[in-house]
Specification:
The complex is a heterodimer of chains A (68) and B (467). Chain A has 68 residues and is mostly helical. Helices cover 60% and strands 0% of the residues of chain A. The termini of chain A are far apart. The model of chain A has no long low-confidence stretch (mean pLDDT 90). Chain B is of the alpha/beta class and 467 residues long. Chain B contains 16 helices and 15 strands. The radius of gyration of chain B is 20 Å and the shape is globular. The model of chain B has no long low-confidence stretch (mean pLDDT 97). At the A-B interface, helix 1 and helix 2 of A face helix 10, helix 11, helix 12 and helix 13 of B.
Chain lengths: 68, 467
């Protein structure tokens, strides 16, 4: 994303979440988000396959309770 | 009165033998806090009535001839994100001052009480634990007891400072990305971040559910092991607590590193270590007989994923308040909270998918190694207010950069002891070394830490800035 695109994303995402932002704050938030975008790009380059599931798995019922 | 208490184990023995009463120990502790905390600002609350009642209860049990539990009469304090019955759980936030007082003690506070410890107060922290410097605008910055112009680290800065200032021998804090290990490093005290899922977090204010850990700070390895053993207990009511049993570490401490394979982390960890941090690491490595350099897999990506997960979960946790009262947040972190709340879901999901692959790669390391060493922070304590940090010629934003060496390790969930070393070139300031073991092997990290302490290379130093 360019700086302009990052700022536009921040403003649109904030509107979607009904989070009011002053122009100054939107700019500062965009600066932070741009730094995180660099990290996200690095992760994007890491190969993951369809079988690579998230680390956190939902448990419908804990095993110890099932054992009782 | 400005005298200091003996170390945890000696203090517990004195109280058990009746040479010192728990009420006398509490009085000495409170006097030290009164004499020093105007300069340190570690405490946000001192709870005298509760502490006195707990201390009197210990003295009464001794008078009745009862066997006393292992921490009987030992004073301690908690980061102010722990629930304490009748007190408001601040979590470093002005917003929380409007919350109702907690109805019950946090699970770990209950464990400490069962072990006989005496809770004296709540400790300063970065707002909602999102920071590494405890520069808290609402409650004032926490000052490093070894140089009051410098940060105590964070987010559990009050914990590190209170132990370093000899206000309390023990403290409880939290660590998501380094918040126990960074203040331990910068204040020169012992800290333990246990395995993710080892200790119950029930009754503590969360920051990042997927990565939050709780753990102790102490004045010695024995104090660390004593308190950690007391804190252990499976807790099915914390969905993040995976411990099945209590595994005491104190009895095996003196086995030291005999038979253990100890390696030194290079790559990312060497690149982001200043010369004094490298010196501290080299001394620890020599002491533990570690020669071989080991590469931690994908350390930079582990840090990146931890950063993204933290920002997203932390931001979304506070979304309601960010919508309606953003100006009541900490000015130093509110924009980061908002940026996190707005992150694309694809970034977050990818980070969580990466985490599973990462975990397996990290765990494979421990087929070959029992203990791995790395500096805990790139540098010694920066001045309060620092915006930038130079690490080996590269300029980094100071506040996030303090977690460069801790984040990859906690994201994998490995247990780590932060050992306080005192290298040259820092003007007398400490830098911690991370003693890292495989998940669920806190015992090995503590054994290696004990060896560092026995050799005299890792220890607390008196806080000269307070003398």
């Amino acid at each position: 994303m360019t700086d302009e695109q990052t700022l536009a994303y921040v403003q649109a995402a904030a509107a979607a979440l009904e989070l009011p932002l002053s122009p100054d704050r939107a700019q500062r938030v965009a600066t932070h988000l741009a730094r995180t975008a660099v990290l996200a790009q690095q992760l994007q380059a890491f190969p993951l396959g369809p079988e690579d599931e998230p680390a956190e798995i939902y448990k419908p019922k804990v095993l110890s309770a099932l054992d009782e | 009165m400005n005298s200091t208490l003996p170390p945890t184990t000696a203090l517990a023995r004195l109280i058990a033998s009746g040479e010192l009463s728990a009420v006398e120990a509490l009085a000495a502790c409170e006097a030290r806090i009164t004499a020093t905390d105007g300069r340190v600002n570690a405490f946000t609350g001192v709870w005298h009535a509760r502490a006195l009642a707990e201390a009197q209860a210990i003295d009464q049990r001794r008078a009745r001839g009862e066997a006393l539990p292992p921490l009987a009469g030992v004073p301690y304090a908690v980061k102010n994100l722990f629930d304490v019955a009748g007190e408001v759980t601040l979590a470093g936030a002005k917003i929380n001052t409007g919350h109702a007082p907690a109805a019950h003690d946090a699970f770990l506070v209950q464990r400490m009480q069962a072990a006989g410890a005496v809770l004296v107060g709540g400790l300063n922290m970065d707002e909602y634990a999102y920071g590494f410097t405890t520069e808290n605008t609402h409650f004032g910055p926490c000052h490093n007891p070894h140089d009051l112009a410098r940060t105590a680290g964070g987010s559990s800065g009050g914990c590190g400072a209170a132990v370093a200032a000899q206000q309390v021998p023990l403290a409880l804090g939290s660590d998501t990305n380094g918040s126990i290990r960074v203040p331990s490093s910068l204040c020169g005290v012992w800290g333990l971040k246990p395995t993710f899922g080892r200790l119950s977090r029930r009754g503590s204010y969360p920051f990042v559910h997927s990565i939050d850990h709780l753990g102790p700070f102490a004045d010695s390895v024995q104090g660390l092991a004593l308190s950690y053993d007391a804190l252990q207990s499976p807790d099915p009511l914390d969905p993040g607590c995976h411990a099945q049993r209590i595994e005491p570490t104190l009895p095996g401490l003196e086995l030291g590193v005999d038979g253990l394979r100890v390696g030194v982390l290079g790559g990312h960890f060497a690149e982001h270590a200043s010369p004094p941090a490298q010196e501290a690491l080299a001394l620890a490595a020599r002491t533990l007989g570690a020669c071989d350099e080991v590469l931690w897999p994908d350390a930079a990506l582990g840090r990146a994923a931890a950063f993204i997960v933290s920002a997203s979960e932390g931001g979304s946790l506070h979304l309601d308040d960010l919508r309606t009262r953003a100006d009541d947040f900490e000015p130093l972190s509110v924009d980061r909270f908002i940026a996190g709340a707005l992150q694309p879901a694809a970034w977050y999901v990818r980070a969580q998918r990466f985490r599973r692959v990462y975990r397996d790669r990290v765990n494979a390391l421990f087929d070959h190694w029992d203990v791995l060493l790395a500096p805990a922070t790139p540098v010694a304590a920066p001045l309060l207010g620092s915006e930038w940090l130079d690490i080996n010629g590269t300029r980094h934003p100071c506040r996030p950069a303090l977690g460069l060496l801790t984040q990859p390790v906690s994201f994998a969930g490995c247990p780590v002891v932060a050992a306080p070393l005192w290298p040259g070139g820092t003007g007398g300031l400490p830098i911690g070394v991370q003693v890292i073991a495989a998940p669920w092997r806190e015992d090995l990290a503590l054994r290696a830490a004990w060896t560092l302490q026995q050799a005299g290379v890792a220890h607390l130093n008196p806080p000269t800035a307070l003398s």
